Amino acid sequence: MTGGVYLLDKAAGVTSRRAAMAVAKANNFKKYGHCGTLDPDATGLLVVILGKATRLAPYISGDTKRYSFDLVTGILTDTLDLSGKTLAEADSSHLTTEDVVSVLPSFTGTFLQEVPLFSAVRVQGKRGYKLARAGENPEMPEREVTVTDWEARELSGNRMTLEVTVSAGTYVRALARDIGTALKIPAVADNIRRTMAGSFLVTEASKEDSCPESLFTMAEAMRGYPTIEVNDVDFKGILHGNPLNSEVLGTAVAVDADGNLLAVGTGDGNLFQPKVVLANEVQT
């Protein structure tokens, strides 16, 4: 296999990059990446792309992700989780489950979210977290995010477990901060766990760096997209990036008779135009 997608159930205390590096080494790949960074303290699904599959990152990263996390009220930190420096504290014992649930509609739908200072987003040409560690506090940009499908458990002390589906680029820590603001009480996130990314589920992932059941071929990783089976006549044309007659609309994948991924492209209802050709993946 010269390319594949590995589903890792990342442990807390390791960066996404180091986790992906360990997976690549364990599976004998030199080239690697990952789709969607998890905070070092966060756990859950990390989609690791290996070898030639790195070219498929835009297609397998997933526009939506689902998380569970604990909303911890009565405290605010600079990192917006419990790993940071405490900035404010307050008594939150008066809050009820109903109080928290009542503000969740304000964070449902599409809205602007201020990016946390402790993030990899560049501000003034530098990463936000590097500016924060240098004692700077620049104005952070806002991003449009989409948030849906909140689920809430009963409040226990100053903790409440929430689950939510978000668009790519949404910060769960910022959601916790903003929920606190709406409740007029400081709040942070804890125990952040990603349970879904695009079409992948954490139940398919392994906590180990190498597990055959969690390593998918490139064709398997493109599940959910329309598939075009290429015949012998059109085979070489696809590998040279030539369009193919097809009624498919939008993003689709072209495979050979054995199910090997040949190309990813777009169709307009008449022609399928390859955008990423994986000619080296198939013996011609």
Describe the fold and architecture.
By secondary structure, the chain is of the alpha+beta class. The protein has three domains: 3-62 and 198-221, Pseudouridine synthase, CATH 3.30.2350; 64-197, Pseudouridine synthase (2-Layer Sandwich); 227-281, Archaeosine Trna-guanine Transglycosylase, Chain: A, domain 4, CATH 2.30.130. 18% of the residues lie in helices and 39% in strands. The chain has seven helices and 19 strands. It has helices at 16-26, 57-60, 97-103, 128-133, 172-183, 218-221, 232-239, and strands at residues 3-10, 32-35, 43-51, 64-73, 75-77, 86-89, 109-114, 122-123, 126-127, 142-152, 159-167, 187-197, 200-201, 215-217, 227-229, 244-245, 249-255, 261-268, 271-277. The strands form four sheets. Strands 1, 2, 3, 4, 7, 10, 11, 12, 13 and 14 form a ten-stranded mixed sheet that branches. It is elongated, with a radius of gyration of 22 Å. The mean pLDDT is 92.
Record keyword descriptors for this entry.
284 residues, Pseudouridine synthase, Archaeosine Trna-guanine Transglycosylase, Chain: A, domain 4, 3 domains, ten-stranded mixed sheet, 7 helices, 18% helix
Low-confidence segments: none
By secondary-structure content and strand pairing, the structural class works out as: alpha+beta
- Kindly identify the CATH topology of the largest domain: Pseudouridine synthase
Q: What is Rg?
A: 22 Å
Which homologous superfamily in CATH is the superfamily of the largest domain? Pseudouridine synthase
Q: SSE order, as H and E?
A: EHEEHEEEHEEEHEEHEEEHEHEEEE
- Total helix count? 7
Domain unit count: 3
E-strand count: 19
- β-strand amount: 35-45%
What percentage of residues falls in helices of 4 or more residues? 10-25%
Q: What is the residue-mean pLDDT, rounded to a whole number?
A: 92
Looking at the overall shape, the CATH architecture of the largest domain is 2-Layer Sandwich
CATH class of the largest domain: Alpha Beta
Largest sheet: 10 strands, mixed
Distance between the termini: 16 Å
Q: What's the multimeric state?
A: single chain
Shape field: elongated
